């Protein structure tokens, strides 16, 4: 077990005086390409990374849920039947980190209360709540209390989705301890509901799906409308490539400001074009779009439409030619986020420019933007050279020194012990 897994176990022991019934984990993610396309019903190509969050969990004799973590000294304990009073409106009553695990428990219980014969828990998590919710089966587990101790080696605030890693680990633990039998997509949906309503961050579903569906040495090609997922081999090792993360250490928060504003612009663009989502707009429709809207809205739309196409092109290039062929698409994606979507920051641009100047095949910011990390696709034996060049460029620009580290595409959520 890694350091964080051991930490979760010892935290559980300090919390309860005993051993957990199990330890579950889920990874953070890096997005290879497809940014701000998920909530537009579009395509994304993330991969799960080899940094994970661990939840040591055990059943309690009463109907309460207690969470502890290495993020904070506070231990938060509430009755399971009090969760509905907390979320979404009174979430301020618990510390922010605790809203993720408690939000997942709340989302799973909410879905269960809507499930009934002919309308399974899996379906209830798909969000169609109409006409259901009566005639519930006996749900003994709904009063089974749980203790959770959480530790993580996913860097927080680096744009690598430490939050979806918590959600994935906790959803997997509760699924098994409560014997829910949910599929991985449904667990991702519970995580997203926690994120959107219990934490209050208006994100799409990419991060949760990546944490649940990741595969070693593969990215996950996701259609965020149908939620269909297909692993796409990356073959980095065979091509002697490494994926370098450059954490700019510029903090970002998606609950405020820019992220929500970009979502609004996309919805406005779709409305003006008369389509349900920007997924339904193709590159050939862009000249017409330009006539229908103001310049800023148009550039937001153009980013999403061209980015969807770049995801499809990247998947095709990986299948046809392998990972050495995708550098240009990564760079085009970054330029589109910098110029059209306007979510980059000088540190991210410097990370991309310096890594490419030092020999990276491609680079781009990854995640929601306004800070966080860039990724660079680098020859195996040039990792140090690129890292040094980026570090020197940050120093020359008087930026805080970046954290650079290699990540490998890894497996999604799993039971560890
Ligand atoms: C954040 C969100 C995701 C996605 C990305 C941008 O990571 O959590 O749902 O929208 O930003 O691609």
Fold and architecture overview:
This protein is α+β, with helices and mostly antiparallel strands and 417 residues long. It folds into two domains: 3-32 and 48-215, Ribosomal Protein S5, domain 2 (2-Layer Sandwich), CATH 3.30.230.10; 231-407, GHMP kinase, C-terminal domain (Alpha-Beta Plaits), CATH 3.30.70. 41% of the residues lie in helices and 20% in strands. It is built from 13 helices and 13 strands. It has helices spanning 3-16, 83-86, 96-114, 121-124, 162-177, 184-199, 206-213, 258-273, 286-292, 295-321, 327-339, 346-357, 383-396, and strands at residues 22-31, 43-44, 46-59, 64-69, 72-79, 146-152, 218-223, 229-233, 241-247, 362-366, 373-379, 403-407, 414-415. It has a six-stranded mixed sheet with strand order 5-4-6-3-1-13. A four-stranded antiparallel sheet has the order 10-11-9-12. It has a three-stranded antiparallel sheet with strand order 2-7-8, sandwiched between helices. Strand 7 (218-223) and strand 8 form a beta hairpin. Helix 6 runs antiparallel to helix 7 (206-213), helix 9 (286-292) packs antiparallel against helix 10 (295-321) and helix 10 (295-321) packs antiparallel against helix 11. The longest helix has 27 residues, at 295-321. It starts with a helix and ends with a strand. Residues 129-138 have low confidence and may be disordered. Bound molecules: alpha-D-galactopyranose. Alpha-D-galactopyranose is lined by residues 35-36, 38-39, 161, 203-204, 206-207, 254, 367-368.
């Amino acid at each position: 077990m890694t350091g964080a897994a051991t930490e979760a176990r010892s935290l559980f022991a300090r919390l309860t005086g005993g051993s957990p019934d199990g330890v579950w984990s889920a990874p953070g993610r890096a997005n290879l390409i497809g940014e701000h396309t998920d909530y537009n019903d579009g395509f994304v190509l993330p991969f799960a990374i080899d940094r994970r969050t661990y939840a040591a969990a055990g059943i309690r004799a009463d109907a309460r849920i207690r969470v502890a973590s290495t993020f904070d000294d506070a231990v938060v304990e509430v009755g399971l039947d009090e969760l509905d009073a907390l979320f979404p409106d009174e979430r301020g009553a618990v510390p922010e980190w605790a809203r993720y695990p408690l939000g997942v428990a709340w989302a799973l219980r909410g879905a269960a209360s809507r499930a009934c014969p002919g309308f399974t828990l899996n379906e209830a998590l798909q969000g169609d709540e109409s006409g259901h919710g009566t005639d519930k089966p006996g749900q003994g587990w709904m009063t089974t209390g749980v203790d959770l101790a959480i530790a993580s080696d996913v860097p927080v605030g680096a744009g690598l989705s430490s939050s979806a890693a918590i959600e994935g680990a906790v959803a997997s633990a509760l699924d098994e301890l409560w014997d829910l039998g949910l599929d991985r997509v449904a667990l991702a949906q519970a995580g997203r509901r926690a994120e959107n309503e219990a934490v209050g961050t208006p994100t799409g579903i990419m991060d949760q799906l990546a944490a649940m569906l990741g595969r070693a040495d593969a990215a996950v090609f996701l259609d965020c409308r149908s939620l269909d997922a297909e692993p796409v081999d990356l073959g980095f090792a065979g091509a002697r490539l490494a994926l370098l993360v450059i954490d700019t250490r510029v903090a970002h928060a998606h609950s405020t400001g820019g992220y929500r504003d970009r979502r609004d612009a996309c919805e406005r663009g779709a409305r003006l074009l008369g389509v349900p989502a920007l997924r339904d707009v193709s590159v050939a429709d862009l000249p017409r779009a330009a006539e229908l809207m103001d310049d800023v809205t148009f550039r937001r739309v153009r980013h999403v439409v061209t980015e969807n196409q770049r995801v499809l092109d990247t998947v095709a290039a990986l299948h046809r030619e392998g990972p050495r062929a995708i550098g240009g698409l990564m760079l085009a994606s970054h330029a589109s986020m910098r110029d059209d979507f306007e979510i980059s920051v000088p540190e991210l641009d410097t990370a991309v420019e310096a890594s490419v100047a030092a020999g990276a095949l491609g680079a781009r910011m990854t995640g929601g933007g306004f800070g966080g990390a860039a990724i660079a696709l680098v020859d195996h034996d040039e990792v140090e050279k690129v890292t040094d060049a980026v570090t020197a460029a940050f120093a020359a620009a008087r930026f805080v020194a970046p954290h650079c580290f290699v990540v490998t595409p890894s497996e999604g959520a799993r039971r560890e012990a």
